[in-house]
Design a protein that fits this description.
Structural class: mainly alpha
Strand order of the largest sheet: 1-2
Bound molecules: iron/sulfur cluster
Number of strands: 2
Strand content: under 5%
Shape: globular
Largest sheet: 2 strands, antiparallel
Number of helices: 3
Distance between the termini: 32 Å
């Protein structure tokens, strides 16, 4: 399994890895989520961005975009959304 040199987490995530992360974040107390349509528009921008790696991870901030783009306060480090 390939790991990120910086944080030690897996670099390539499976769909079930991502689903688990999303479920964990959504179950956290006090987390404010963006509207589903906002999330979908954000993620669409990420999918068209050359900084998205492995279909999940932003090369600029290192975040998993299926999670970050769901957060009400989530921001794109390149100000694309
Ligand atoms: S968060 Fe911004 S820079 Fe990162 S992949 Fe998405 S659109 Fe690109």
């Amino acid at each position: 399994m390939e790991k990120c040199k910086r944080c030690g987490l897996k670099t390539v995530l499976s769909e079930s890895d991502i689903d688990k992360m999303v479920d964990e974040v959504m179950a956290m107390k006090g987390v404010r989520l963006a509207d589903e349509n906002v999330y979908l528009k954000r993620f669409e921008a990420c999918e068209e961005c050359d900084k998205l790696m492995y279909g999940s991870t932003c090369a600029v901030c290192g975040c998993v975009m299926q999670v970050r783009a769901r957060l009400a306060d989530g921001r794109c480090p390149k100000k694309k959304w």
